[in-house]
């Protein structure tokens, strides 16, 4: 799969492969509407970020795609099929991998169990050996309780877990948050590697500098609306202006 | 010293009932998000069933132990399928109320059928009397209950830690929503886990029958202490439930020995202390605010 640098996918790309397409999605918590008419698409092998300040609705969007947040209107389709009322586990089995903002590592499971808990849903999923090769520290600590790892290691574990599942779309919720620069860099490398394997990545980020080093395109989210959609070059040249606009 | 050992044994045997039942409560709460108020009534039902099996079919303790456990599993499965299931999507309070209602119905049905006075149940053959070791005299049955419940807890522990099903139950107990998002069909495990939790309460009831007064009300005090156990161990923690179960049993036994009327109070003092120092319980996960 080739890299995409264009801001909008072409019609043929849209028709083929594991494409995520969100159309006019709105979401509520009770009476409060937190997403309004959000539309976006992510192609295989493409890294797309969702940038926005605290409370913009980024996590809610990821949770809606995962089927965890149900109070929504609009459509979400994956691989050409509308997800509708599909359960979160059905979505995961269809190849959507969730890496939550709190990393979601189980304290009552060992590192190895954290990795092997999810079912393998794809034949070209990473094997456990591949995971350990890529992340030697997870091998070293495989019998430790998952939450005994450092924050950065937990982040690696959370990402490795969905790669071992064989997810074809990764929903990454602020993976760089609270981590040292060298670890953030490592996460960047992993994202590029995943991308090279044709996996689609929807990356929620507040670390704009980091976002611009890995992403092909960006959506800016403010108060639950997509206010701008632009490719990485445009994003980089207008960063200061855009951040000011977002109030970040 | 001999008194100390005797109280310890007594504590471990009562602790065994608490640990087994709290273990059931913990897996049910973890996987379904239901606080099963009827757990005490199920414990009572287990004990009553043992006496009824003896009276009507002449089946003694050793037959009752597996049979009642199995019957209570079926009872739990039916309860989940017919009632609990329908409220799972609503606020957890609804299932709390439902199981509270089930408790009232079960207790009254037993009262109606078997009256309010205690039903006699013998200590099983082979476990009567005491073992004398010099100045130390230990109840054979208490010894049996202590060892047996530790073994059952260990077996459940092995099941939970060494099998894939156990791994799924642990993961779902810790965070059911996250497990769903990782491709686990948590719903499939809901019914067997509920039945399993109820079966453990029933098993505790059978074990209690020979040395607790068996009557319709025996579960009402039990459930209160059980909630204290769960709070002390940490809601949703499986290891916490077991450790706190034995701990509370010990506190109760020593309380009865040295501070008779205050033994119940001591349990709640312990609970208050734990909550003050570790609000999530001894093994509970501290929630990030
Ligand atoms: N469970 C909830 N109940 C009610 N309102 C909520 C809930 N979760 C989030 N919100 C509100 O919805 C809005 C969007 O929240 P969301 O968590 O999606 O934002 P976010 O962009 O991920 O923010 P952050 O950068 O802080 O993670 C916020 O105003 C938030 O207060
Ligand atoms: Mg968020």
TrEMBL record, chain A:
GO terms for biological process: L-amino acid transport. GO terms for molecular function: ATP binding; ATP hydrolysis activity; branched-chain amino acid transmembrane transporter activity. It holds the Pfam family ABC_tran. Residues 20-248 form the ABC transporter domain. Keywords: Amino-acid transport, ATP-binding, Nucleotide-binding, Transport. Gene3D superfamilies: P-loop containing nucleotide triphosphate hydrolases. InterPro entries: AAA+_ATPase, ABC_transporter-like_ATP-bd, ABC_transporter-like_CS, BCAA_Transport_ATP-bd_LivF, P-loop_NTPase. Belongs to the ABC transporter superfamily. This is Amino acid/amide ABC transporter ATP-binding protein 2, HAAT family. The lineage of its organism: Bacteria, Bacillati, Actinomycetota, Actinomycetes, Micrococcales.
UniProtKB/TrEMBL annotation, chain B:
GO terms for cellular component: plasma membrane. GO terms for biological process: amino acid transport. The keyword Nucleotide-binding does not apply. Pfam families: BPD_transp_2. One of its GO terms (molecular function) is transmembrane transporter activity. InterPro entries: ABC_transp_permease, BCAA_transport_permease. Its main location: membrane. The chain crosses the membrane at residues 16-35, 93-110, 141-160, 189-211, 223-250, 262-283. It is a multi-pass membrane protein. Keywords: Amino-acid transport, Cell membrane, Membrane, Transmembrane, Transmembrane helix, Transport. It is found in: Cell membrane. It comes from the Bacteria. Belongs to the binding-protein-dependent transport system permease family. LivHM subfamily. This is Amino acid/amide ABC transporter membrane protein 1, HAAT family. It comes from Pedococcus cremeus.
């Amino acid at each position: 799969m080739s890299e995409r640098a264009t801001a909008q996918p072409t019609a043929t790309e849209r028709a083929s492969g594991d494409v995520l397409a969100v159309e006019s999605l709105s979401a509520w918590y009770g009476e409060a509407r937190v997403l309004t008419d959000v539309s976006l698409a992510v192609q295989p092998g493409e890294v797309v970020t969702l940038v926005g300040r605290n409370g913009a609705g980024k996590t809610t969007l990821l949770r809606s795609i995962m089927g965890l947040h149900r109070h929504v209107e609009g459509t979400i389709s994956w691989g050409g099929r509308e997800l509708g009322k599909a359960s979160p586990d059905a979505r995961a089995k269809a190849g959507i991998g969730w890496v939550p903002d709190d990393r979601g590592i189980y304290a009552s499971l060992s590192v190895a169990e954290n990795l092997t808990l999810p079912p393998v849903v794809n034949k070209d999923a990473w094997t456990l050996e591949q995971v350990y090769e890529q992340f030697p520290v997870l091998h070293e600590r495989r019998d430790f309780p998952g939450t005994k790892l450092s924050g950065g290691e937990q982040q690696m574990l959370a990402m490795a877990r969905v790669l071992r599942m064989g997810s074809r779309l990764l929903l990454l919720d602020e993976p760089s948050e609270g981590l040292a620069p060298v670890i953030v860099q490592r996460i960047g490398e992993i994202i590029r590697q995943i991308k090279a394997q044709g996996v689609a990545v929807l990356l929620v980020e507040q670390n704009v500098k980091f976002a611009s080093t890995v992403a092909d395109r960006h959506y800016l989210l403010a108060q639950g609306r997509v206010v701008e959609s632009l490719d990485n070059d445009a994003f980089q040249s207008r960063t200061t202006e855009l951040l000011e606009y977002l109030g970040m | 010293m001999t008194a100390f050992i005797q109280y310890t044994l007594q504590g471990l045997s009562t602790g065994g009932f608490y640990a087994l039942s709290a273990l059931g409560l913990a897996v049910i709460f973890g996987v379904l998000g239901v606080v099963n108020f009827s757990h005490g009534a199920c414990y009572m039902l287990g004990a009553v069933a043992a006496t009824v099996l003896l009276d009507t079919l002449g089946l003694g303790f050793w037959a009752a132990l597996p049979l009642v456990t199995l019957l209570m599993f079926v009872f739990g499965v039916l309860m989940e399928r017919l009632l609990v299931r329908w409220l799972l999507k609503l606020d957890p309070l609804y299932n709390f109320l439902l199981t509270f209602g089930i408790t009232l119905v079960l207790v009254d049905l037993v009262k109606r059928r078997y009256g309010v006075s205690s039903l006699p149940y013998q200590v099983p053959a082979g476990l009567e009397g005491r073992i004398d070791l010099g100045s130390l005299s230990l109840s054979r049955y208490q010894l049996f209950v202590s060892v047996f419940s530790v073994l059952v807890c260990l077996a459940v522990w092995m099941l939970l830690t060494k099998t894939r099903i156990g791994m799924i139950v642990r993961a779902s107990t810790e965070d059911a929503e996250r497990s769903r998002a990782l491709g686990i069909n948590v719903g499939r495990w809901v019914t067997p886990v509920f039945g399993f939790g109820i079966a453990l309460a029933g098993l505790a009831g059978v074990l209690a029958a020979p040395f607790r007064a068996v009557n319709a009300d025996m579960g009402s005090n039990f459930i209160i202490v059980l909630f204290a156990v769960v709070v002390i161990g940490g809601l949703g923690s499986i290891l916490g439930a077991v450790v706190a179960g034995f701990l509370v049993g010990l506190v109760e036994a020593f309380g009865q020995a040295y501070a008779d009327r205050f033994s119940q109070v001591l349990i709640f003092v312990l609970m208050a202390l734990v909550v003050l120092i570790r609000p999530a319980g001894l093994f509970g996960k501290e929630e990030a605010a």
